[in-house]
Write a structure and sequence with these properties.
Layout lengths: L1 H27 L4 E6 L12 E6 L2 E4 L17 H10 L11 H22 L3 H24 L9 H10 L13 H13 L6 H10 L5 H8 L10 H10 L4 H18 L13 H13 L6 H33 L5 H11 L1 H18 L18 E5 L2 E7 L1 H25 L6
Antiparallel strand pairs: 1-2, 1-5, 2-3, 4-5
Length: 429
């Protein structure tokens, strides 16, 4: 009877772990949290959920749906990631893509690591467990090194991560200053009507000063610095991509490469880089581009980029060291060290909230003085409803967070069953 109960308990504990692995895998490709902005400018009939975005582990994605009403028919859903970035920049906030850049780039490796940890926890014999985890972690380390630091490594990133990078590039309007100021947009329209191709800097400066927007002069000058005439515009790059018959992942890599090379063409020759296509190169370039998308203030951007460059390398070695420690812990069959590896997936939901809140704090306390409106540093709403200027903000967990929480709970239950078996002397080790 005791043996039968022991076998049943072992089966249940293993089943819980297998289900938890599946839940973590599904959660990785699911929206974890959502944020929405509502304002009078976005009527509920056309925007029932406001300007909504979804936070995934590997990026931020559009949360707006295709709307078809008697008053409004769309061919495709509004890009609400782009829309929210445009709204936020008026109060001096950096684009959404400038947050969590290292975490998103390494997310696929970290979730693969969770899988190896849980597979290891399924194995009761220490020696076999060490072998399985060591082989699994070596595979992840190799995959991570090739992806992050070798030429062409970006192709080993997941498709969702690449799509999020491309989405956050925007639609190309800000390259011409269209979204920095209604005055600039008006000037462009007038130039088009008159058949002009350019406007004098003096005329533009005087128009901006007359409307109290003199701070935009430096931004516009930075946007057009360098040899921009030889560079392909983002609008052209995106238009060409739509005509391509390649798969989405290949197209997105091509867009990133074309955008990278266009940016390099705008720089002085001594500052240009050759495209290698490593994930680390794309990460740093994309981060710098995101920071300077609206407010290109080099003195503030350069230190942030330097920090992120170091963080990219430190994170790589940190993950490698962590995997080595987990292999060492897995050699134990009892005691505190034995229980540390399965605790890692248990803390994932809480770690996400802490990470999410920390980046929201960063956004609210890194406001550029070049925003159209001046706000004091503030903490954006992490959970619930808040208000910023005329916007109502909403921030709540999505079903992906429920999957993370359910997976963590199953691992806790499996740990309890495993502990009971060890205490009763029925567990191997």
């Amino acid at each position: 009877m005791a043996s039968s109960q022991s076998n049943k308990g072992a089966l249940v504990y293993r089943l819980l772990i297998v289900v938890a692995i599946g839940l973590f895998a599904v959660a990785y490709v699911s929206p974890i949290w959502w944020v929405s902005l509502k304002a009078p400018q976005y009527p509920e009939t056309a925007f029932p959920q406001g300007i909504k975005i979804n936070f995934h582990m590997n990026g931020v994605f559009n949360g707006c749906q295709l709307i078809e009403t008697a008053e409004k028919t769309e061919s495709e859903a509004l890009d609400c990631v782009h829309e929210m970035d445009a709204i936020n920049h008026f109060v001096g906030m950096y684009p959404i893509a400038s947050g969590g850049v290292v975490e998103k780039a390494y997310s696929q490796f970290l979730f693969a690591m969770l899988g190896v940890i849980l597979i290891g926890f399924l194995i009761t014999r220490p020696r076999f467990r060490v072998i399985v985890m060591a082989v699994g972690f070596l595979g992840i380390a190799g995959w991570m090194a090739v992806t992050m630091f070798t030429a062409g490594g970006i192709k080993y990133q997941n498709a969702g991560y690449l799509q999020a990078l491309v989405t956050s590039l925007g639609q190309g309007e800000e390259e011409e200053g269209e979204e920095l100021s209604p005055i600039i947009a008006e000037l462009k329209r007038k130039l088009g009507d008159a058949g002009q191709l350019s406007v004098s800097r003096e005329e533009l400066d005087s128009r901006l000063e007359a409307t109290g927007q003199s701070r935009l002069k430096d931004v516009l000058g930075s946007l057009h610095a360098g040899d921009g005439g030889k560079a392909k515009s983002l609008k052209d790059i995106l238009a060409e991509a739509k005509e391509s018959g390649a798969d989405a992942k290949t197209v997105n890599i091509h867009i990133l490469q074309q955008a990278f090379e266009a940016d390099m063409a705008r720089l002085p020759a001594d500052k240009r880089q050759e495209w290698t296509g490593s994930s680390a190169q794309v990460l740093i370039w994309h981060y710098e581009k995101s920071l300077g998308r609206w407010f290109k203030i080099e003195d503030k951007i350069r230190p942030l980029v330097a920090i992120m460059s170091v963080a990219t390398t430190v994170t790589f070695w940190g993950v490698v060291v962590l995997m080595g420690l987990l292999v060492f812990f897995s050699s134990r069959s009892r005691g505190l060290l034995y229980w540390l590896p399965p605790l890692v997936p248990v803390v994932v939901p809480a770690a996400f909230i802490v990470e999410y809140a920390a980046w929201l704090w960063w956004y609210g306390h890194r406001l550029s003085e070049m925003g159209a409106f001046t706000l004091k540093p503030f903490m954006p709403t992490v959970f619930g409803q808040g208000k910023v200027a005329q916007f109502s903000t909403f921030s709540y967990p999505n079903y992906g967070f429920g999957l993370l929480a359910a997976a963590a709970l199953l691992v806790l239950l499996a740990m309890a069953l495993r502990r009971k078996a060890l205490r009763e002397g029925d567990g191997e080790g």
